Each structure stands twice: as C-alpha cells, then as structure tokens.
Amino acid sequence: MIKLDHLSIAVSDPERSRDWYVRHLGLRVEFEVPERSTVALQDDGGLTLFLVKNPEASRHPSCGLTFQVDDVEAAHHALSAAGLAFVNAPQKLFWGYGAELNDPDGYVIYLWDERTMREKGGP
C-alpha cells in the first residue's frame, strides 16, 4: 500500500496561513517549529500539510489543494458569510462539481463533496 502522508507548501507567513487553514477549513495544528518557520497542520484523514516560510511563496503558487467537505454548498455559504471571496461558487467545473477559492498565498483551494460530485459533476 502507498499512502500520501504529508505535503509541504511554501508560504509567505506561516502564522497567517496556519490561522487561515485552521479557522476556515478546520485543520488542526499538529506541531510547530518556530526556529524553522514551519507549521504542521493535519486533516481528519491524517494527512499533514506543512507550511514552510518562503518570502517568494505568493509569487509562484506551485499546486492546488483539494479538500473533501461534507457539503460543498454549505461550506461555500459558511465561508462566504465569513468574508472569504470565491473564485468559483459551487458549479460544474473542468474537474467536476465544486467550488474554488484562494488561500492567503494564492494557492487554489478546491472544495467538493461526494454527493454533489456524483449527482452534478459527471461528464
């Protein structure tokens, strides 16, 4: 068996990014290494997302992050109400049905859920 265990992304401000991912996406702080400007966050499935300081981070986001949520419509409503701007509200997109927003460094965040992907995301 092969299982993705962790992912590292470069961020301009680890504390700001930590707070954003914890507050808006519900990740929890696993540990922090202040002397290395690194924060480790964990999702409900055990994947750890490392936020590593790099002042150049916001200039060149290198990947998109896809998060499965319980209900993409409800997540969109709650996050919009919290003041987050979405690039795309829940709709059929090239990758299926879901929503897209950006984190503080410009990484694309894809949100989806099983039900709407099955019902609305197919070819």
List the helices and strands and how they pair.
Blueprint lengths: L5 E6 L2 H12 L2 E6 L4 E5 L5 E6 L10 E5 L3 H10 L4 E8 L2 E7 L5 E5 L1 H7 L3
Parallel strand pairs: 1-4, 5-8
Antiparallel strand pairs: 2-3, 3-4, 6-7, 7-8
Describe this structure in words.
The protein has helices spanning 14-25, 72-81, 114-120; strands at 6-11, 28-33, 38-42, 48-53, 64-68, 86-93, 96-102, 108-112. It is α/β, with parallel strands linked by helices and 123 residues long. The protein has a single domain (6-120), classed as 2,3-Dihydroxybiphenyl 1,2-Dioxygenase, domain 1 (Roll). A hairpin with a 5-residue loop joins strand 7 (96-102) and strand 8. The longest helix has 12 residues, at 14-25. The model has no long low-confidence stretch (mean pLDDT 92).
Looking at this protein, list some descriptive labels.
123 residues, alpha/beta, 2,3-Dihydroxybiphenyl 1,2-Dioxygenase, domain 1, four-stranded mixed sheet, 24% helix
User: How much strand content do the residues show?
Assistant: 35-45%
If you compute it from the alpha carbons, what radius of gyration comes out, rounded to the nearest whole angstrom? 15 Å
Main pleated-sheet profile:
4 strands, mixed
Tell me the structural class. alpha/beta
CATH superfamily: 2,3-Dihydroxybiphenyl 1,2-Dioxygenase, domain 1
Query: Which stretches of 5+ consecutive residues score pLDDT under 50?
Result: none
Mean pLDDT: 92
What's the tally of helices?
A: 3
Give the helix proportion (percent range).
10-25%
Shape: globular
At the first level of CATH, what is the class?
Alpha Beta
Q: Alpha-carbon distance between the termini?
A: 30 Å
- String of helices and strands: EHEEEEHEEEH
Number of strands: 8
Strand order of the largest sheet: 1-4-3-2
The CATH architecture comes to Roll
State the CATH topology.
2,3-Dihydroxybiphenyl 1,2-Dioxygenase, domain 1
Task: Tally the structural domains.
Answer: 1
